[in-house]
Specification:
The protein is α/β, with parallel strands linked by helices. It contains ten helices and 16 strands. The protein has a six-stranded mixed β-sheet with strand order 10-6-1-2-3-16. A five-stranded mixed β-sheet has the order 13-12-11-14-15, sandwiched between helices. Strands 7-9-8 form a three-stranded antiparallel β-sheet.
Amino acid sequence: MASLFDRQPAPLVGLDVSASSIKLVELSRDRAGRFTLDRCAIEPLERGWINEGNFEKFDEVVDAARRLIKKSGTKAKNVAMALPASLVISKKIILPGGLGERELEAQVELEANQYIPFSLDEVSLDFCVIGPSPSSAGDVEVMIAASRKEKVEDRQGLAEAIGLTPMVMDVETYASRLAAARVLEQLPSGGANAVVALFEIGGLSSTLQVLREDELLYERDQVFGGAQLTQLLMRQYGFTAEEAEAKKRAGELPEDYAQVVLDPFVQNLAQEVERALKFFFTSTPHNRVDLILLAGGSAGLHGLTEAITDATSFPCQMINPFDGMELGRGVREQKVLREAPSYLTACGLAMRRFLP
């Protein structure tokens, strides 16, 4: 009888706010655990509205978020959001096992004082128990995360301004790993022991995360992103920033664009990926990866996966966080396939609806 009354958790959207756009994803799941992509949408932001995770033009970002909500058609009132990893201090610590909740909180605050360079009154602090310590019998491994309160409040304020209730505040790289983990489970042998380089190409910067199953082996940020392609278009053809972005999205570019602008940019981006992997190899015992996965708005650039394979000698493909999901009636399949790599973080945030 209990199964007749099973209910899904309340609807929740994942809202990924980056320097170049806002992405929304809403998921549902059946009793067998199969996901359906109910809604997804992207709304571009003008350069300078958000800078290094800081809201410089709050009202303009709110207006863009309202357009996104209307475009998506969502009726959900709860939202999961995330902070850039650069705005979060995170640290694994070891604490005695068997502590009660209040004792654990007190110990976390005591330990956090050692790693956070400002008063705890100025930060939002959270923690989770990962599990038994692999190196200290009877102790537990705990992850603590802290960010300045105003950074969290900016995102809470955005959610509330568009009529949503913030339920989860995650870290962008954690959310992208959650979405990637579901895709990696579909690799041969469930991705067992596979070393995978997840390269997310943002507007102004890119992030490399090297993963092996549930383990993060390495992480690195690089100041290189899709905005540099916009700058090349402006320099080559005299476009304004708005014209260049609009023509990129519409595909209305000069005949010599591929040869003069796109191909050199793709080669430079492939070299950036190769350079990031070399840092990984020289900083760890590893000397190869089994697969490179590309996410972000520039992941689908023509010839990029091939250029990266040529530069690194490792197989490369775009990641589709919706792979294996059913598509809702309002989702356009071809559009989703084209834009899927951009939704990795938003998808991970939407998946938080189904976590304990």
